[in-house]
Amino acid sequence: MLITAYLSVFEEDGGMTKAILQQLAKAIGVENPEGISNKTELMRTIQLQAKQRPCFRSDNYMSCEDKDSKWRTECQKLVAV
After folding, report:
1. What is the pLDDT, as a whole number, of residue 22?
2. Residue 61 and residue 30: Cα distance in Å, rounded?
3. CA diameter of the chain
4. Distance between CA 81 and CA 23 in Å, rounded?
5. Tell me, what's the pLDDT at 29?
6. What's the pLDDT score for residue 32?
7. Buried b (16+ CB within 10 A) or exposed e, 49-77
8. What pLDDT is attached to residue 26?
9. Does residue 48 contact residue 54 with C-beta atoms inside 8 Å?
10. CA 58 to CA 46: how far, in whole Å?
11. Strand, helix or coil at 46?
12. To the nearest 10°, the Cα dihedral for 2, 16, 59, 26?
């Protein structure tokens, strides 16, 4: 439920920031989230901690079959490389 609450804040505020992701990670029990500076790695770590497949922005994100994923909207946004 904590993850769902954070995701609704993300949507209202216009997206995820590294600081907010680190707060979420810490809140759900990730050790030393301040040491993770990459947003994608933070998301995957949060997914692992929540017992989900760590698939955020992986190679198969466009063929995601998890229609109920809480991360789906953010995961499939276009990102400049």
Report:
1. 92
2. 24
3. 32
4. 26
5. 93
6. 95
7. bbebeebbbeeeeeeeeeeebbbeebbee
8. 93
9. yes
10. 14
11. helix
12. -40
What are the tokens at 41? Answer: 């790695």
Which long-range contacts (C-beta less than 8 Å, at least 24 apart) are formed by 69-73?
A: 70/3, 70/4, 70/7, 71/7, 71/43, 71/47, 73/11
pLDDT for position 43: 86
CB 42, CB 63: distance < 8 Å: no
Which tokens go with 40?
């994608």
Per-residue pLDDT of the chain (81 residues; tens, 9 = 90+): 677 776 666 666 666 788 888 988 999 999 999 999 888 899 889 888 988 877 776 776 555 666 666 666 666 665 655
Six-digit token pair at 43? 């998301």
Class of residue 40 by CB neighbours under 10 A (exposed 0-12, middle 13-18, buried 19+):
middle
